[in-house]
Each structure stands twice: as structure tokens, then as C-alpha cells.
Amino acid sequence: MPKRMIQSVKHYLKRFRRWSFRRLVSAYAVPGSVSKAPALVLAPHPDDEVFGCGGLIALKRDLGLPVTVVFLTHGEASHRACCQTDPKRIGAWRRQQALASLAVLGVAEDSIHWLACQDGQIPQAGDPTFLETESQLAKLLQHHPGEIYTPHPLDGWPDHKAATELTRAALQKVDGVFDLYYYPVWMWYLFPFSQFSLIPQQKVFAVDVASGLDRKREAMDGYLSSLVQPCGVPGCGRLPEGFLDPFQQSREFFFRPS
Ligand SMILES: [Zn+2]
Ligand SMILES: [Zn+2]
After folding, report:
1. 239 is in which domain, residue-wise?
2. Neighbours of 251 (CB within 10 A)
3. How far apart are CA 21 and CA 208, in angstroms?
4. Distance CA 25, CA 200 (A)
5. Is 70 exceeded by the pLDDT of residue 1?
6. In the predicted model, is pLDDT for residue 58 greater than 70?
7. Which ligand has its closest atom nearest to the C-alpha of 162?
8. Ligand nearest to the CA of 227
9. From the CA of 89, how far away is ligand 2's center (Å)?
């Protein structure tokens, strides 16, 4: 078989696998609703909060509920393998865009916090800066009891896995009532289908966010439409084909730890 044809078959198989994964998660999910609890969303990079929770954030704000967003990094490494544009410039751009995108969803600047981890190097347990970051996060959590949204532990991207680990560790250090939810971002794209049996071990909620979908799309477009020169790639980096598909849907999925 010609090489191009083999690549094409592989491409469609991967697309089918990702589509099937979404269908299966959808089949397991039970309807969820937007509760009256305040929420804190932890995002490894500026854009994760919108991709994973943008609709939920908009709906919470519609109800007048406080939503706090904590970014672990400025996302400054998104063009490292692309055009070598100064990471400080990329980080400053993504930070500004986060404020603009979150304003669309109704979150004001004073509800947004930044922890100064390095993009690509969010500390994992045992790393020298893990305890310090854990303590900074614990202080923020202490002031924001309610629902906590953090990336799914099977998100597959090292910074995202580290973010989940930090959230769990920080929650051990604080008093108060917290409801932890995991949101998928890279999991939709990277999840190994062979591990699907892990999914039913967690409760999955599908929240209808249709009434906030236009604002979510506008917030996403902000991240995606402003292009860095000279490469012409969005500031948040080159995202693979099909990556955005799950975030265009009128339902967002949240997992409860087992
Ligand atoms: Zn990310
Ligand atoms: Zn670039």
C-alpha cells in the first residue's frame, strides 16, 4: 500500500478512536447541573480554563456566583519549538488574553491569580519547588471553599498531570468543604483507548452549557485568532487538528474522583 494511503488510514483511525472515546464518555455520563456553589478553576496554562470549563464559568457568573481562576504558568513556552519568539513576549500576550477571555465569561481581574511556575516545568512531588507551590495554592484554596476544578489526572500532558497532583496535595493542607471535579482537556485527544475501563470508576457529569456556548466560543476565539509573527501561529501554540472539537459542544464533562 502506498505510504500516503497508509498515513491517511492511520489518520482516520485516530479520528475515529477519539470520536468513539467521546461517545463512550457521553454514554457513561449522567446529567449534571450548575450548582449554587462558588467555584475555583485551576488552569496549568492560559486557555485550559476556557477549553475545559468556559461554559460552566459563564453560567456560574450568570447566577452571580463567585468564580476564581488560578493560573499556574503564563504559558510562555508555547512557541519554543515553533519560532523561538521571546518567551516573555508570549507569556505577556497570553496573560493579557486570559484577562480578555475571562472578561467575556464575566470574571474580573481581581478574581484571577497567577502562580509563577515555569511553563513545561510545573513541579511534581519531589521537585524542589513543589512544596512552595503547594503552599501558595493551599493559601488560595483556603479562601475559596466550594467547588474546585482541576485537570483530569489522565489528561496525558505532563503540566496538566502535575497541576492535578498539586491540587490534591494542596487540598490536604486546608480546612473547609471542597468538592473536587476533574475537567478533561488533552484527555479528549491523548487518552489511550485501551485504558477506557478506568473511566467507569469515576462518576461523570455532563453539564448543559448551551446558554453560555457563544461566550465560550468568543473566549476561545480570543486565544486562537491573534497570531504571533513571524510564524503566524496563535499565541497559545499550534493545536492539532480535531483538538478543539470537544470544546465546541453544548455539554461540558466533569469527573468526580473515585
Ligand atoms: Zn494546558
Ligand atoms: Zn511561533
Report:
1. 34-256
2. 17
3. 19
4. 9
5. no
6. yes
7. 1
8. 2
9. 11
Ligand nearest to the CA of 231: 2
Using DSSP's 3-state secondary structure scheme, residue 87 falls into: helix
For residue 5, how far is its CA from the centre of ligand 1 (angstroms)? 33
Residue 20 lies in a domain: no
- Flag whether 236 is in a domain: yes
Give distance in angstroms: CA of 78 to centre of ligand 2: 8
> 77-107: string of b/e by CB count within 10 Å (b at 16+)?
bbbeeeeebebeebbebbbebbeebbebbbb
Long-range CB contacts for residues 124-127, cutoff 8 Å, separation at least 24: 124/161, 124/162, 124/165, 125/165, 125/169
When the pLDDT of each residue in the chain is averaged and rounded to a whole number, the result is 94
E strands of the chain, at which residues?
Answer: 30-32, 39-43, 67-71, 112-114, 146-151, 178-183, 203-208, 227-228, 233-234, 251-256
Segment 136-157 mean pLDDT = 94
The CATH number of residue 101's host domain is: 3.40.50.10320
Domain count, the chain: 1
Q: Does 3 map to a domain?
A: no
Could you give the CA distance from residue 163 to residue 42 in angstroms, rounded to a whole number? 8
Grid cell in block for residue 244: 478543539
Strand partners, 106: none
Q: How far, in Å, from the CA of 93 to the mean position of ligand 2?
A: 13
pTM beyond 0.70, yes or no = yes
Classify 95 as helix, strand or coil. helix
Q: Is residue 25 part of a domain?
A: no
Q: What distance in Å separates the CA atoms of residue 220 and residue 237, rounded to the nearest whole number?
A: 13
